[in-house]
Design goal:
This protein is mostly beta strands. The protein is globular, with a radius of gyration of 18 Å. Strand 19 and strand 20 form a beta hairpin.
């Protein structure tokens, strides 16, 4: 890349390119963005965001634009902005109701974006919806538990599964809950076998959700599966390496690639397949 960065976002655009935006490095918080072209393997600089930010979210909307929301820069941010891949230009859109970082953002089947949880003046249980047609945010039902550094997965039935996270500096969560877009209401579902945060969650081709690794008071290698038809978790095989801050990607053949992260011995180059 042109700039070193961490706690940034990466979004696969409808044209196949990858947009990387924001983050931070030794020079501070970044507003820069760049594009990766898989056909050439090269990076190119694109327009800067309006606000420097890290620990934000980025969501590819149904119209192909990218919505960036919240994060931390000049304090905790409520601001949101849109990237237009056809012009490479960012434009400001409506502010969120709550400032937040380390939250989740999920594109629902109706095209709206659900933002949930995170941290600003404390751990948040609030959630809100962005409507791409109006550029306006509206408050929706609160989660049962305040949480940050959790995961959110859009299930095949359209519901959103939120798992884990933490609700204080040392209180890690095993709980999970479901958001129903038709009612705006959250409901508790089965708890995971392990408390965990800064983990990953992937919706598999069969509709189950694989949650893997993360940490609580230790680095975790454990993994478990959520069955949406029963609301029950089952333990599956441990990862080879305990890790957190890693990535997890569902490949076209259905296997899951976990890569990098941080382990007991430091930063990891290792990768493994589930």
């Amino acid at each position: 890349m042109t700039y070193a960065r961490s706690t940034h976002t990466a979004s696969v655009l409808l044209n196949g390119k990858v947009l990387v935006a924001g983050g931070r490095n030794s020079g501070g918080y970044l507003k820069s963005a760049e594009l990766y072209d898989p056909s050439t393997g090269e990076w190119s600089v694109t327009g800067n965001m309006t606000n420097a930010r890290a620990d934000h979210t980025a969501s590819v909307l149904l119209n192909g634009k990218v919505l960036v929301a919240g994060g931390y820069g000049s304090g905790y941010l409520t601001s949101a902005e849109l990237y237009d891949p056809s012009t490479g230009v960012w434009s400001v859109t409506g502010n969120m109701t709550n400032s937040r970082a380390d939250h989740t953002a999920s594109v629902l089947s109706n095209g709206k974006v659900l933002v949930a949880g995170g941290y600003s003046t404390g751990m948040l249980r609030t959630a809100e919806l962005y409507d791409p047609l109006t550029g306006v945010w509206s408050v929706t039902g609160n989660m049962t538990n305040a949480r940050q550094s959790h995961t959110a997965s859009v299930l095949l039935n359209g519901a959103v599964l939120v798992t884990g996270g933490r609700n204080s500096s040392s209180s890690y969560l095993a709980s999970a809950e479901l958001y129903d877009p038709s009612t705006g209401v959250w409901s508790v579902t089965g708890s995971m076998a392990n408390t965990r945060y800064i983990h990953t969650a992937s919706v598999l081709l069969n509709g189950t959700v694989l949650v893997a690794a993360g940490s609580n008071n230790v680095y975790l290698a454990s993994a478990e599966l959520y069955d949406p038809s029963t609301g029950v978790w089952s333990v599956t095989r441990n990862m080879i390496n305990a890790r957190r801050f890693h990535t997890e990607s569902v490949l076209l053949n259905g296997t899951v690639l976990a890569a990098g992260g941080e382990g007991q011995g430091g930063y990891l180059t290792s990768a493994e397949l589930y």
